[in-house]
Amino acid sequence: MPFDPESLVFNDQGLIPAIAQEAETGEVLMMAWMNAEAVARTLQEGRVVYWSRSRQAFWRKGDTSGHVQTLVEMRVDCDRDCLLLQVRQTGAACHTGRRNCFYTALRDGEEVEIAGPM
Amino acid sequence: MPFDPESLVFNDQGLIPAIAQEAETGEVLMMAWMNAEAVARTLQEGRVVYWSRSRQAFWRKGDTSGHVQTLVEMRVDCDRDCLLLQVRQTGAACHTGRRNCFYTALRDGEEVEIAGPM
């Protein structure tokens, strides 16, 4: 059936979580949020556009940093309340300059940094 | 430094999103929610425990279905408001009987089912 972004399940702020995964390697890069229009723009442009909760504005990933996410495929989960974005990431996905945001592991009750800036 | 679950950033319902990823293959299985105690129990037991928003109760994955998630490693993102769980999944992660929850892809404006029940 034709896809309508409004058919997704959004939270009370009108947002849905979107997980970005590197399409080639399966690396989970980051998680951010989208509203219905961000979903529509992402599909239209083939470039990932989030909604920034802190800035309350569209966040076209890479516009400032150059670290663009090119959409390979968008997937919807069984409850329609979470998105999985298969992407090709240019440069670092994380604002700290790391390839992905999940660089802190919990090992033996301690926080361990497992990746540095690229 | 020693890890304290309370140091994570929870939403106004006291919850944090947790992405479960198959440790061996990188497959993203599902996304669900945890409160601080679910995080602590998961680390303690080495078995994933979520917080069910619909049932408002702890959800020890696999207790009813047998589809247990064994924790390989928990990771925290840069903003401390999202978790990545590296797991070993027994059977289907999705309640529909599919290996993962993201079995609906958006292709050429249509929803396409890309995986069936195991």
From TrEMBL, chains A, B:
<feature type="binding site">
    <location>
        <position position="94"/>
    </location>
    <ligand>
        <name>Zn(2+)</name>
    </ligand>
</feature>
<keyword id="KW-0378">Hydrolase</keyword>
<dbReference type="Pfam" id="PF01502">
    <property type="entry name" value="PRA-CH"/>
</dbReference>
<feature type="domain" description="Phosphoribosyl-AMP cyclohydrolase">
    <location>
        <begin position="30"/>
        <end position="103"/>
    </location>
</feature>
<keyword id="KW-0028">Amino-acid biosynthesis</keyword>
<dbReference type="GO" id="GO:0000105">
    <property type="term" value="P:L-histidine biosynthetic process"/>
</dbReference>
<dbReference type="GO" id="GO:0000287">
    <property type="term" value="F:magnesium ion binding"/>
</dbReference>
<feature type="binding site">
    <location>
        <position position="79"/>
    </location>
    <ligand>
        <name>Mg(2+)</name>
    </ligand>
</feature>
<dbReference type="GO" id="GO:0008270">
    <property type="term" value="F:zinc ion binding"/>
</dbReference>
<dbReference type="GO" id="GO:0004636">
    <property type="term" value="F:phosphoribosyl-ATP diphosphatase activity"/>
</dbReference>
<dbReference type="GO" id="GO:0005737">
    <property type="term" value="C:cytoplasm"/>
</dbReference>
<dbReference type="InterPro" id="IPR026660">
    <property type="entry name" value="PRA-CH"/>
</dbReference>
<keyword id="KW-0368">Histidine biosynthesis</keyword>
<feature type="binding site">
    <location>
        <position position="81"/>
    </location>
    <ligand>
        <name>Mg(2+)</name>
    </ligand>
</feature>
<feature type="binding site">
    <location>
        <position position="78"/>
    </location>
    <ligand>
        <name>Zn(2+)</name>
    </ligand>
</feature>
<dbReference type="InterPro" id="IPR038019">
    <property type="entry name" value="PRib_AMP_CycHydrolase_sf"/>
</dbReference>
<comment type="similarity">
    <text>Belongs to the PRA-CH family.</text>
</comment>
<comment type="pathway">
    <text>Amino-acid biosynthesis; L-histidine biosynthesis; L-histidine from 5-phospho-alpha-D-ribose 1-diphosphate: step 3/9.</text>
</comment>
<dbReference type="InterPro" id="IPR002496">
    <property type="entry name" value="PRib_AMP_CycHydrolase_dom"/>
</dbReference>
<comment type="similarity">
    <text>In the C-terminal section; belongs to the PRA-PH family.</text>
</comment>
<keyword id="KW-0963">Cytoplasm</keyword>
<protein>
    <recommendedName>
        <fullName>Phosphoribosyl-AMP cyclohydrolase</fullName>
        <ecNumber>3.5.4.19</ecNumber>
    </recommendedName>
</protein>
<comment type="subunit">
    <text>Homodimer.</text>
</comment>
<comment type="pathway">
    <text>Amino-acid biosynthesis; L-histidine biosynthesis; L-histidine from 5-phospho-alpha-D-ribose 1-diphosphate: step 2/9.</text>
</comment>
<comment type="function">
    <text>Catalyzes the hydrolysis of the adenine ring of phosphoribosyl-AMP.</text>
</comment>
<keyword id="KW-0479">Metal-binding</keyword>
<keyword id="KW-0862">Zinc</keyword>
<keyword id="KW-0460">Magnesium</keyword>
<feature type="binding site">
    <location>
        <position position="101"/>
    </location>
    <ligand>
        <name>Zn(2+)</name>
    </ligand>
</feature>
<dbReference type="GO" id="GO:0004635">
    <property type="term" value="F:phosphoribosyl-AMP cyclohydrolase activity"/>
</dbReference>
<feature type="binding site">
    <location>
        <position position="77"/>
    </location>
    <ligand>
        <name>Mg(2+)</name>
    </ligand>
</feature>
